[in-house]
Amino acid sequence: MTDTSITADLFRRACGLWATGVSIVTTADTAGKPYGLTMNAVSSLSLDPPMMLVCVDKGSDTLAPMLASRVFCVNVLTSAQQDLSNRFAKKGHDKFEAVAWHPGTVGAPVLAHTLVSIECEIADVVTGGDHEICCGVVRDIIANDSVDVEPLLYYGGRYGALGKA
Ligand SMILES: Cc1cc2nc3c(=O)[nH]c(=O)nc-3n(C[C@H](O)[C@H](O)[C@H](O)COP(=O)(O)O)c2cc1C
C-alpha cells in the first residue's frame, strides 16, 4: 500500500537526517573495465562470515557489471576526497581518468588514499523497491594507517567533517 502523504521530497529530507560516511563502491566488468558510484547506502551485515551490503539503484550504470562479475569494493573516503565523491556521483563520463587505483584481490578497483577499502564477493542479491541490495562476503581489507586522516561525512544533503575535539 502506498501512503500518498509520504512524498519523495519528505522521504529524501528525512533520510538526509541520517548522518553517514561517504564511499565509492567500485566493480569491474568481466573484461576488467572499471565502474563505480558514490554511495552512502552501505552497511556492515554479518560478522561470521564477515559481510557487507550495498544498495544500488536499478538505474545505475555500475549495477549490471557488478551483477555480472559478482564483486565490489567499498572505498571509504577521507575528508580530502570530496572532489572524488562528486566525480563518481555524476553519470556518463570516464570517472577513472586521472584517478589512482589498482585491481584488488577480487578484481574490483581499490582507490588510492582512502580510509579503508573493503573487497567483497557477492553472495546474495535481494530486490528492495527500486534498488538491488547486493550482499557480499569480505575477501580483503586495505586500511590506511595514517593517524591524521578523517572521514568525509554526509548530512542534510551536504558534506561535513568531524569537529575537532
Ligand atoms: C553522498 C551520495 C550518496 C549516494 N548514495 C547512493 C547509494 O547509496 N546508492 C545509489 O544507487 N546511488 C547513490 N548516490 C547516487 C549515485 O552516486 C549517482 O546516481 C551516480 O551518478 C550513479 O552512477 P552510475 O550510473 O555511473 O553507476 C549517491 C550520491 C551521493 C552524492
Structural notes for this entry:
This protein is mostly beta strands and 165 residues long. The longest helix is centred in the first third of the chain and has 9 residues, at 8-16. The chain has helices spanning 8-16, 63-69, 82-88, and strands at 20-21, 23-28, 34-39, 42-46, 51-57, 71-76, 101-103, 109-111, 116-128, 131-143, 153-155, 158-160. The chain is 14% helix and 42% strand. Bound molecules: flavin mononucleotide.
List the helices and strands and how they pair.
Elements: H1 8-16, E1 20-21, E2 23-28, E3 34-39, E4 42-46, E5 51-57, H2 63-69, E6 71-76, H3 82-88, E7 101-103, E8 109-111, E9 116-128, E10 131-143, E11 153-155, E12 158-160
Antiparallel strand pairs: 1-11, 2-3, 2-6, 4-5, 5-10, 6-9, 7-8, 9-10, 11-12
Bound molecules: flavin mononucleotide.
Strand content: 35-45%
CATH class: Mainly Beta
The CATH superfamily is identified as Electron Transport, Fmn-binding Protein, Chain A
User: How far apart are the first and last residues' alpha carbons, in Å?
Assistant: 46 Å
Number of domains: 1
Number of strands: 12
Low-confidence stretches: none
The percent of residues in helical segments reads 10-25%
Keywords:
Pnp Oxidase, Chain A, mainly beta, three-stranded antiparallel beta sheet, binds flavin mononucleotide, 165 residues, single chain
